[in-house]
Design a protein that fits this description.
heterodimer; A: alpha/beta; abc type-2 transporter like fold; 2 domains; four-stranded mixed β-sheet; 15 helices; elongated; B: alpha/beta; about 10% strand
Chain lengths: ~375, ~375
């Protein structure tokens, strides 16, 4: 029993030293608490894929009942903000300087063809530079067109002249709010940043200042040193994490359909992965400049782009999909989006947690080995 | 002349400080290339191989034709068949299928009688953007099917049809949108990291005081410290530009000069902000933190991935202070829309202003942060 109690004492000492260091340099506390709040506020409001009030130019070459009823369908939609132009040339000028996102163009003979031959063409020009926005706008325009078809058929007293109509039911997010999936994803991005930033410079700083050697000559063991260094940051990180979840639910109205305890347990696991990654970076880099650079490069952008937070992983080329497997945020994003929006779906939670567990073991194990080698040298 | 030589000497010293260390050299070269390749392929909103399950209670020639159109499209992949309602939820919940199509038993009967048949679609909305896009692909296939069916069966088509034509990016490849943006993304990261620590490091080592007592004036220190970041940013930016054109084959339709003017102003403002952060920081840790705090919002609020026009007004106003926002417009304008200087004036001057303000503040701080 003796060695364990001595070990416990040493551990307590290291934890106390790290905690004091955190308390005396308030920057880590700022990272853990202020940063998630600021980032979540900024991103929760800033990152949205829901287009509203898309500026559209409308060119009606001849105003009559037919064209008015068609344009009416667009006026009733709050997806669009219409601006009328007299000619297609004038509309195109506005389009070129990006004052409008697209043009809806009803030619002179629109109403005549509506009544005689049918299939009267409606010209729609969209700014395709942002392909995603263009596709979504095209979808809204098609929606307005279908609404018009239905009301037109009703007025004429005929069947809707469409053999097949779609009846979509969007599960888990019926209102199609992009915030509902982006905010949980943001928690993953933010926690990756915070976990790695908190620890990435901790060890590098000790090497640079030469205090690592002083720590090494104390009876403290490597394992104790690592646990002692990680523990206070783990507590800090979990605090920030809970704060983020509270904001997601309270401020952004994201529903939490799964259980809170699953969310907490998985987040604790992810926090350990992120801290372990930071620790590994700081052990490898040995100086703060390189440690800082590596942590910027390996955390933020991969978590942002390769985690499935915003870009769908299954649409990426196979080689890139393989690479996404080494991004820890990928697993956490999958769990978060499911636990928040769909509920406790165990196959997804367990599979991704297993991957997180494996990554935690690899990161912390590697950090331990590297730290050990340095000691011998 | 002596001013010029002094600045040159300082710039060379700064460059050496960055490049002499093997690890920092590596960090400047390898990750940007790897990021360009990986992100260039990863950052796309286009969907392909959407896993689709079918719940077909109809099984007639009509439904077979519709299904054949779906499975023949590169966007969809048929992953399974459903026989009853209860099987739908597990498929969607476990992400085995993104959507389940339900054709009721009266589907073809309705179509043949000229009644509108309802095609039920259940979509996983966990990622609402993906759900909307998948629905869009499905909708265009159904619309084509409708038109063809009406024509073949002598029915009257819809009274009006949409002819949607996207300009500048005719096939709506989101890669064309995202990849040019990566030029801004990577040069911003590299430049900020290089400059964000340049003063803090010297402060920590105590060599900044020595620098201040040399004959160098603060302005000269500023210029000398700016040059390496600017140079590294321009070189990496040019390299990535080349890759975007040659490797990713994004068309470069506008004026290259207009693009480089934008890149120079953008890098100058990034250098200015980097030096500002650096001179505010007392330790390197604070320098890195500051660089991080600047980088992350800059990227997210730049329009790189999500449009600025979707943000609330307050946040949109905030983006006006973000140099990357302007550079994104320039990149996409020059690449896809064929813009030249004239159309981009409104993007140039805000970046120039940000650069001037940040650089002057940094120079002032060099001296006044001492005491």
């Amino acid at each position: 029993m003796k060695p364990t109690s001595a070990s416990l004492m040493r551990l307590k000492g290291i934890i106390r030293k790290e905690s004091l260091q955190i308390l005396r340099d308030p920057s880590s506390i700022a990272i853990a608490f202020v940063l998630p709040v600021v980032l979540l506020l900024l991103f929760g409001y800033g990152v949205s894929l829901d287009a509203r009030q898309i500026p559209l130019a409308v060119v009606v070459e001849r105003t009559d009942a037919g064209s008015a009823s068609f344009i009416g369908a667009f006026e009733h939609s709050d997806y669009f903000e219409l601006q009328a132009f007299d000619s297609i040339q004038a509309a195109q000028l506005a389009f070129d300087v990006r004052a409008v996102f697209g043009i809806v163009w009803l030619r002179n003979d629109f109403s005549d063809r509506l009544l005689t031959t049918g299939e009267a063409p409606v010209g729609v020009i969209l700014n395709g530079v942002d392909a995603n926005q263009a596709r979504i706008t095209a979808g809204y325009i098609q929606g307005a067109w279908q609404a018009w078809l239905a009301s037109y058929a009703r007025l004429q007293g005929v069947e809707l002249p469409l053999p097949v109509t779609l009846e979509p039911r969007i599960w888990f997010n019926a209102a199609v709010r992009s915030r509902n999936f982006l905010v949980p994803g943001l928690i993953a991005v933010i926690m990756t940043l915070i976990g790695a930033m908190l620890t990435s410079m901790v060890v590098a700083r000790e090497w640079e200042r030469g205090t690592m050697e002083s720590l090494m000559v104390t009876p403290v063991r490597i394992g104790e040193l690592m646990i002692g260094k990680l523990f206070p940051y783990f507590v800090l990180g979990m605090g920030g994490m809970l704060l983020s979840v509270a904001m997601a639910m309270g401020l952004f109205g994201v529903p939490l359909r799964g259980s809170f305890w699953v969310l907490t347990a998985v987040s604790a696991l992810f926090m350990l992965v992120a801290l372990g990654m930071g620790l590994l970076i700081s052990v490898v880099a040995k100086n703060q400049f390189v440690a800082g650079q590596i942590s910027i490069i390996t955390t933020f952008l991969p978590a942002f782009i390769l985690s499935g937070f915003i870009f769908q992983i299954s649409s990426m080329p196979t080689a890139i999909q393989v690479i996404t497997h080494i991004v820890p945020a990928r697993y956490y994003v999958a769990i978060l989006q499911t636990v928040f929006l769909a509920g406790d779906i165990w196959p997804i939670i367990l599979a991704n947690s297993a991957a997180l567990l494996a990554m935690m073991i690899v990161f912390i194990g590697l950090a331990r080995r590297k730290l050990h080698k340095r000691l011998d040298a | 002349m002596t001013t010029f030589r002094r600045i040159l000497a300082l710039a060379v010293k700064e460059l050496l400080a960055i490049l002499k260390d093997r690890k920092s050299r590596f960090v400047l070269v390898a990750p940007p290339i790897a990021q360009l390749i990986v992100f260039g392929y990863a950052a796309t909103f286009d969907l392909n191989n959407i896993p689709l399950a079918l719940y077909n209670e109809d099984r007639s020639a009509v439904s077979r034709e519709l299904v054949a159109r779906l499975t023949g499209s590169p966007h969809f992949v048929l992953v399974g068949h459903v026989g009853q309602d209860a099987q739908i939820a597990p498929l969607i919940d476990n992400k085995k299928a993104l959507m389940v199509l339900h054709l009721g038993p009266r589907f073809s009967a309705d179509v043949k009688r000229g009644k509108t048949a309802h095609l039920q679609v259940i979509i996983d909305g966990r990622n609402s953007n993906t759900a909307l896009l998948a629905l869009g692909y499905l909708r265009s296939i159904v619309t084509d099917f409708n038109l063809d069916w009406s024509r073949q069966h002598g029915g009257s088509g819809p009274p009006a049809v949409l002819r949607i034509r996207p300009w500048y990016n005719e096939n709506l490849l989101s890669r064309w949108f995202v990849v040019p943006g990566i030029i801004g993304l990577i040069t911003l990261v590299v430049t900020t990291v290089v400059t964000g620590l340049s003063v803090a490091r010297e402060r920590e080592a105590g060599t900044f005081d020595q620098l201040l007592v040399t004959p160098l004036r603060p302005v000269e220190i500023l210029v000398g410290k700016s040059i390496p970041g600017l140079l590294i940013g321009l070189i990496e930016g040019s390299f990535i530009l080349l890759m975007v054109v040659l490797w990713f084959e994004v068309p470069l339709r506008g004026s290259l000069g207009a693009l480089y003017l934008g890149m120079s102003l953008f890098l100058l403002s990034a250098v200015g902000i980097g030096l500002l952060i650096s001179s505010l920081a007392v330790t390197q840790q604070q320098g890195i933190l500051g660089a991080f705090l600047f980088l992350v919002p800059s990227v997210i609020l730049s329009g790189f991935a999500t449009p600025i026009s979707n943000m609330p007004q307050v946040v949109q106003h905030l983006t006006l202070f973000n140099p990357m926002r302007y550079f994104m417009v320039i990149l996409r304008g020059v690449f896809l829309e064929g813009d030249s200087y004239g159309l981009l004036l409104n993007q140039y001057w805000p970046m120039a202003m940000i650069a001037v303000v940040a650089l002057s503040l940094a120079a002032w701080l060099f001296r006044n942060r001492m005491h």
